[in-house]
Amino acid sequence: MPPKSKQAKKGATANPSTPDTTKPKPETPNWPPMQPLVPASDLYLTDLLPDQIITIPHFWTTTLCKTYVNFLASLALTTTPGKPKKGDAVRVNDRFQIDDPLFAERLWSGTALKELVTHPVVDGEALDEPATRKLWGGDVLGLNSNIRIYRYSAGQFFDQHYDDANNISFPSSSSPSPIPARTTWTLLLYLTSPATGCQGGETVFYPDPPSRREAAPEPVVAELEVGMALLHRHGKDCLLHEGKEVTQGEKWVIRSDLCVRR
């Protein structure tokens, strides 16, 4: 959970990483193949905000994003209630949530993501092993199997909030028992952008002021780009952020979390 000072700042938090056990478990989708893909050698990590927000431009191809948008539109999406639970941020969108370790593994090691995260080169600077552990918050295991699909249509948005960290049991192919893990960074994979007719929907981060006497820095805006992956710290280190209202078209996002050993 974010520290109390953060909770009090806007009086709203969000914890979308915990599956809803009150509803029937949805059927695992027959996900399309993740092809074509861009090799790791043609991709790079860039700091949108040093040590807080990292992007991977062109992580997925335009063709692959279009394939997934067409497929995801066929899923049984649920509209999030406009009136949230006490303490939650206002979120109005359509979503699908599934616990799918196989898809999480495909997205992790079946793409360039594993190579980019475990051997990071950020803005041209290669990180050694200690720096890599420090950046991600520990020894990275992979992605959270809790996969969330978000669709924001015109008029939908996600108000200012923080993303919680979660302790989970990480499935391991090399061990009969799951590995105790925790989530440290949110992963957002954008499938649409103004190039596909989506207007608005930017993810905006609000850095804390250096001190109580100083003004807060300017907001950091992550513009939508087709196929861009965005990673940002969550839990106690999460920045206040929001998904701006979509004014035209549709914003599609695949969400997971980076998991480290605990």
From TrEMBL:
Q: Mind listing the GO molecular function terms for this protein? A: iron ion binding; L-ascorbic acid binding; procollagen-proline 4-dioxygenase activity
Q: Where is the Prolyl 4-hydroxylase alpha subunit domain?
A: 51-259
Q: What superkingdom does the record give?
A: Eukaryota
The yes or no answer to whether the keyword Iron is present is: yes
Which key words are in the record? Dioxygenase, Iron, Metal-binding, Oxidoreductase
Give me the segments passing through the membrane.
none
Q: Where is this region: Disordered?
A: 1-35
- Metal-binding found in the keyword field: yes
Task: List the InterPro entries.
Answer: P4HA-like, Pro_4_hyd_alph, Pro_4_hyd_alph_FE2OG_OXY
What Pfam families is this protein classified in? Answer: 2OG-FeII_Oxy_3
Q: Which cofactor does it need?
A: L-ascorbate
The residues forming the signal peptide are none
Q: Name one GO cellular component term.
A: endoplasmic reticulum
What protein name is recorded for this chain?
Prolyl 4-hydroxylase alpha subunit domain-containing protein
Taxonomic source organism: Hortaea werneckii EXF-2000
Query: Taxonomy-wise, where does this protein's organism fall, top ranks first?
Result: Eukaryota, Fungi, Dikarya, Ascomycota, Pezizomycotina
